[in-house]
Amino acid sequence: MSVAELAPRRTASARFLRSELWLIFGRRRNQAGLLVLIAVPVLVAVAVKVTGPGAQGEGPDFFSAITDNGLFVSLASLTLEMPLFLPLAVAAISGDAIAGEANLGTLRYLLAVPVHRTRLLAIKYVAIVLFAFAATLLVTFTGIVMGLALFGGGDLTLLSGVQIGFWQALGRVLMASAYLAVGFASLGAVGVFVSTLTEQPIGATIAVVIYCVANFILDTIPQLDWLHPYLITHYWQNFADLLRAPISWDGVTSGLFLAGVYIVVFCAAAWARFAGKDVTS
User: Fold this and answer.
1) What is the pLDDT of residue 84?
2) Scanning 2, 20, 35, 258, which has the fewest C-beta atoms within 10 Å of its C-beta?
3) 157 three-state secondary structure
């Protein structure tokens, strides 16, 4: 195939991706969801400023450290949003990927452009990945801005007790956010697969959220410790390992590997389902 023949396809794919991103970020319901996400770090920062850090449950004690360095607002917010809000946002986008088009009756016309089914699925998933990173980083940057405005910055004391400079600390926070975004992207792969099974985007979204919550619940049952390393959410809390000195890479690499496995398996399953699916709407 010549370069001249490839160029129109690449241009069409780029245009399709831009259109998909515009649909995701331009819809008011998605914009409202993003506003909910950024409201959490704002509330966390204001609440700690007014009442103090308070007590923290299990997991890294980011809340008590907020008054020492405002960067911890973003980490505390990610901890709060990790079990439900961020997964719900990704589930809503991924569950709508194919099922939403089928529900609106536009999937058949979209494939008639023509757009190869594999390319359509790939572009849909790339858009979901970009949304997962955008949503996670939006929470992070909002927390950083609010934290620095209300509590200041400076050197940051890591979870291991070692102090690092501000810019190095900022890099660690962004690394932790990117790590979590990869985990949410793997959940998005599950959502794309579920989206190929139904024409009801709400049903697909609910199914993905239930799946995510079930993983969190199973991860708390000691008798199922043999299952824990295979749960999609098991390594998400390992983002805190990037806030240690030295960085504890074992849990981080395990989390990235598991996320990669989920992405490959469920994207392949979505392709296998969608490639042979009878599109009637």
Assistant:
1) 92
2) 2
3) strand
